[in-house]
Specification:
Blueprint: H1 2-6, H2 16-29, H3 34-37, H4 50-69, H5 73-76, H6 85-96, H7 106-115, E1 118-123, E2 131-133, E3 139-141, E4 145-151, E5 157-163
Antiparallel strand pairs: 1-4, 2-3, 4-5
Helix pairs in contact: 4-6
Length: 164
């Protein structure tokens, strides 16, 4: 059991699809994937479903522990109390597959572009620099390469080499 769990690769920006597939295979082989396949059974007076609920709860706990263990601390994010394994996996999927194209985080881009004080220099990319290639054979076109100065509130300047 621990060998299977230890063979799951650590999740990073470039391997989400492989990580998810490995997680699903390991949980399936260990017969712990119930919480990923079905929603939690509900208990009603006529049919309390106590055994099914306990089985689902155990599956959910184990799935969450195994997934959290195979994710770098940086990407775990805050796990809200009551989060189930299916929801946790969906959150990570949304985070790592936000965009089919490789694009820079718009929040950071907007902040830098709004805060930018001056462009020291910029140039169009050469043929060899025309595209940035990332995982899954995605690529994005480079429009400009340059150095910019960002004046921080502390009086320091941050120099950025930017590929746009």
């Amino acid at each position: 059991m621990s060998t299977q769990v230890n063979n799951i690769p650590r999740l990073n920006e470039a391997n989400f699809k492989d990580w998810k597939e490995d997680i699903q295979i390991v949980l399936w082989c260990m017969d712990l994937d119930l919480a990923l396949r079905v929603d939690r059974p509900t208990s009603i007076e006529e049919n309390p479903n106590k055994v099914e609920i306990e089985k689902w709860d155990r599956s959910n706990r184990m799935c969450l522990m195994i997934m959290k263990r195979s994710i770098l601390e940086t990407f775990r994010g805050s796990i809200v109390e009551g989060t189930n394994a299916k929801g946790f996996l969906k959150q990570k999927e949304q985070y790592f597959t936000k965009n089919d194209k490789a694009e820079v985080d718009s929040g950071a881009t907007n902040h830098v572009s709004v805060s930018m004080q001056s462009c020291i220099w910029s140039r169009p990319p050469s043929d060899a620099e025309a595209f940035i290639y990332v995982a899954d054979d995605n690529r994005t076109k480079v429009k400009a390469i340059g150095t910019f100065r960002l004046s921080l509130g502390t009086g320091f300047h941050l120099y950025l080499i930017l590929v746009h």
